[in-house]
Write a structure and sequence with these properties.
single chain, 323 residues, alpha/beta, Rossmann fold, 5-stranded parallel β-sheet, globular
């Protein structure tokens, strides 16, 4: 892998498969008594979040700590940034603290790229979501979840449904899943497709019912009303009727098809409670898999270039042999 993870589009197929293979080994630790590895002992990971996301921040924090890294959580609210400090000065401060990796979530698209490419810092930068642009580790954990249920993704049909316009998850998934050989269809109202979506290399549809029977995985997206300053659909009820996943639509799915959601969910709008809690749903599993994937990303950026976590490294006696 390269020094930074800024975009799902930066990953070659070999890169992506290396992350997924490493994540599979990390995931095996989740169900065992001793979950920590010494792989990043002495390294420092900074979670720098300019935008609230408890789920993503906790996932990265858990991942770093399970690799024995030191973790610093930096929240923009109440920090020197609120007093006018620039992103550059903050980066230089983190550098002085000895940060080896900086996990950045920012409301402005491109902020992690600026941090990585402006020469302010020598740390590895991981994009944990920038504006409406990308969220590459979410795409990796989604792909990892799919492979656990569907196997190889070559030729698999993945439907991503909902607010594509404001979704960094949709963009990163569209890029990564195609790299892994899947066929991606984005489904949304015309008002919730971004300009230039035709350049993404995916299929698009306004008709959810036409797409569902062929899908191997269906990923529902949250309607991001906090990013909307206009009326993109007539009403919540109308959106749910046209683009919500309910029990009736579940009946159109193939027997093996899984249901996904990056969270947080708006139950009753894009997905009904019975579907979210059904056996087809892998939404809770996505959270568990997120820690394993982020462990893999941090390990590969800071630790090594090959999967190096043996399945025997689950007791303290073996840990030092796997450092």
């Amino acid at each position: 892998m390269k020094k930074h993870l800024l975009s799902a589009g930066d990953l070659t197929r070999d890169d992506a498969e290396l992350v997924l293979a490493t994540a599979a080994e990390m995931r095996a630790l989740a169900d065992r008594p001793i979950k920590k590895l010494p792989a990043l002992r002495g390294r420092t990971v900074v979670n720098m979040f300019f935008e609230d996301s408890t789920r993503t921040r906790m996932s990265f924090e858990a991942a770093a700590k399970r690799l024995s890294a030191d973790v610093i959580n930096f929240a923009a609210k109440g920090s020197s940034l609120s007093k006018g400090e620039s992103l550059k000065d903050t980066a230089l401060t983190l550098e002085a603290m000895g940060a080896d990796a900086v996990v950045v979530r920012h409301w402005a698209s491109g902020a992690p790229h600026n941090l990585a490419n402006a020469g302010w810092s020598t740390s590895s930068v991981v994009n944990a979501g920038d504006g409406t642009h990308e969220h590459p580790t979410q795409a990796l954990l989604d792909a990892f979840t799919m492979t656990r249920h569907l196997g190889d993704l070559d030729g698999r049909r993945i439907a991503i449904v909902g607010d594509v316009l404001h979704s960094r998850v949709a963009r990163s998934n569209a890029l990564l899943l195609q790299t892994l050989g899947a066929e991606v269809t984005l489904v949304a109202p015309p008002t919730l497709f971004p300009l230039g979506v035709e350049t993404w290399g995916v299929q698009t549809s306004y008709d959810l019912d036409a797409v569902l029977p062929k899908a191997d995985a269906v990923m529902m997206l949250r309607v991001q009303r906090e990013r909307m300053n206009a009326s993109y659909f007539p009403s919540v009820r109308e959106y749910s009727r046209r683009y919500g996943l309910d029990a009736r639509r579940m009946g159109a799915l193939q027997d093996h098809t899984i249901v996904m959601h990056p969270g947080p969910m708006i139950r009753g709008m894009e997905i009904t409670a019975d579907v979210a809690d059904s056996e087809r749903s892998v939404i809770v599993e996505q959270v568990t898999n997120g820690v394993a994937v982020r462990m893999a990303v941090l390990y590969l950026l800071l630790g090594g270039s090959e999967p190096a976590v043996s399945t025997s490294s689950t007791n303290e006696g073996d840990e030092e042999n796997n450092a």
